[in-house]
Amino acid sequence: MSTEIADVATTARSIRNPVLTGFHPDPSILRVGDDYYLATSTFEWYPGVRVHHSRDLVHWRAVGGIITDRRLLDLRGCGDSNGVWAPDLTYHDGLFHLVYSDVASFASGYWDPQNYLVTAPDISGPWSDPVKLHSHGFDAALFHDTDGSTWLLSMSADWRPGRDRFGGIEIQRYDRERRQLVGEARIIFHGTAAGLTEGPHLYRRDGWYWLVTAEGGTSWEHQVTVARSRHLFGPYLADPSGPLLTSAGRPDLRLQKAGHGCLVQTQRGDWYLAHLVARPYSPLGRCVLGRETAIQRVDWPAGQWPQIAGGVPADTIAAPDLPAHPWPDEPATDHFDSPRLAACWSTLRRPAGPEWLDLEARPSHLRIHGGQSPVGKQTPSLVGRRVGAERCALETVVEFDPVDHRQLAGLTAYYNTLNWHYLYLTRADDGRAVLELLSCDQGRRTAHPELTVDVGDAVRVGLRARFDGPVVRFGYDLGAGWRELPVDLDATILSDEHAALVVDGEPAAWGFTGAFLGLWVQDLGGDGVYADFDEATYRED
């Protein structure tokens, strides 16, 4: 495509939000030359810190994740919605810098957040061994000042009863040569009346330091707040006109929960904000797709406060004046021909490795060795992909020869250890190979024995899970065509809102991820069982 044609195509294009659909929260956006990168939270899923790449802010492609092994982070035993929170991606002195928080708890006001830093010469790595930073609070981020100094920001957690748990935004110098924090940590911003101040990013422009934070919590009252100061350590004054962006008080908007933003400037000087959103299935209803990433255009005249049209998230905005750069479409079907999992897949609590995943033992098949039960948090065997649309489906073909009821393999619609639907092959007490359906809602399991299917002599069994708005339906194919199980299952239990639990005013569980469709295998007796999956097809309607 010629430059002239590309420029014309760009002029006619728009950014359609969300740009990253499904579970992609807490975006950190970065430009290096002509390349844009978006890093998002992954919580209990590997690879940690999912990364997407763009050349025009319109078209994005998944390039995998950064935390691919336990050397960088061990998620064994990680609780639901714990793990990797709010990564920050920057570039300085020829190196990518990634800061990420490993949050171990949120019970009784404690978070136990350990922050780490890794660096690499290229976004694809290799990444350095992690530098252990402080545990003062989560949502840590780096700021590289124009004088060559580097600073670590984070929210400052306060566990003490009766105190504000979000104690403000703190800053501390990071010595890049010594690879350690130096000097004292200082609180530079206590936030606005919206409260719950977190997610800091700092910028220097026009003689000002500009502090961008998330406030109001991660749900309907979420917002992006901007404050500024002439001095690094403040005082910082929040924009008197209010938040840069929020959807609070506007249940009519398609994009809700707008907040947790990060700014980027294009090659031609325009500013954009990447931020978190969610799309409830009904006004202020449940968000099965989880928290997603959107982009807004920012009007930022020199020396003045940045502004977004209307201060609300728009479904569609004008694309930047950059050459269009579409990527090849992701194939609908993964034939498992590669020696590595495709970038669309994630694994639960343990990285993809030969001790439980094998793409080479049998050509064009994914072999999954069975793991723990659905509630196990050390060695589960779940390979999943994000649900990106209200109406979508995943189909696969499995070969599995269970010996008894302790061996299961199948297809799941999954949120966390407490909320899932599961169609699986197993062995009945009378020796028959059967398909069974099991659901779990806040830890309460419901079996459907009336829907049990005798698979007979079928060696290859097709399985399908379909999201149809608020409903999940399962189907199977024993060689004579697809048949659907006659039951509509509640898809909305696979949502952030349903997953959240508050007991006596304290959070017992949060819902920070989103729905997955996945290939799941259990070996509850530790007998060495595995299942072979021959291709998987994901489609959105």
TrEMBL record:
Keywords noted in UniProt: Glycosidase, Hydrolase
Signal peptide segment? none
Location of the Beta-xylosidase C-terminal Concanavalin A-like domain: 333-539
InterPro entries hit by this protein = ConA-like_dom_sf, GH43_C2, Glyco_hydro_43, Glyco_hydro_beta-prop_sf, Glycosyl_Hydrlase_43
* Gene3D superfamilies xref list: 2.60.120.200, Glycosyl hydrolase domain, family 43
* GO MF entry, a single one: hydrolase activity
| Record's keyword annotation contains Repeat | no
Output the Pfam families linked to this UniProt entry.
GH43_C2, Glyco_hydro_43
- This protein's source sits in the domain of life called Bacteria
Q: What protein family does this chain belong to?
A: Belongs to the glycosyl hydrolase 43 family.
* UniProt-recorded name of the protein: Glycoside hydrolase family 43 protein
Native organism taxonomy: Bacteria, Bacillati, Actinomycetota, Actinomycetes, Micromonosporales
